[in-house]
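To: structure desk
From: M.T.
Subject: fold request, one chain
Message: Could you run this one when you get a chance? Sequence is below, nothing fancy, just the single chain.
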Amino acid sequence: MKTFHLLFNHTLTEAQKADAIQTFGVEKFESLPPKLQALWSNIPADIDTYEMGSYLYEVYLYLTTRVQEDDVVLIQGDFGASCMMASLVRKLDGIPVYATTVRRAVESKEGDRVLKTSVFEHVRFREYPDIKGDW
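Reply: Done. C-alpha cells follow.
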C-alpha cells in the first residue's frame, strides 16, 4: 500500500490530500507518532549540523522502518533537517516532496482599521532535487 508520510508541522488540507492521491496514487496517510512529531517541530536553533543528526536519530530510525520503495514523504521544517531527511528518503527509495503554495493578500475593514491577511493556497507537491544537483 503506497503511503504518504508526513514529516511536517501542520495538518494536511483536503486539497493537499486530494493532490497526493491523484498525483502519487497514495492510499494511506501516516503522521509521526506524537513524541517524534514533538522532536521534529522543536529542533533547537542553537545546535549545529552535526548535533542535528543525533537530535533526530529517533526520527531517522522511524523512517527507516516505515518508508517503503515509492512511498512519498512530505518533508517541511528546519531547512538543514529537511535536507538531511530528503537525502535519507532517497536512500530508502522513497520520494521526498515539499508543498508549494500561492499567497494571496486579503484586505478587510474593521471600523477605521484595514486588516491585511495572507491566505496560502496549495498549488502542488514538488520533489526535492537530488542533493548532488539536478541542473
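Reply (cont.): The chain has a mean pLDDT of 92. Let me know if you need anything else for the meeting.
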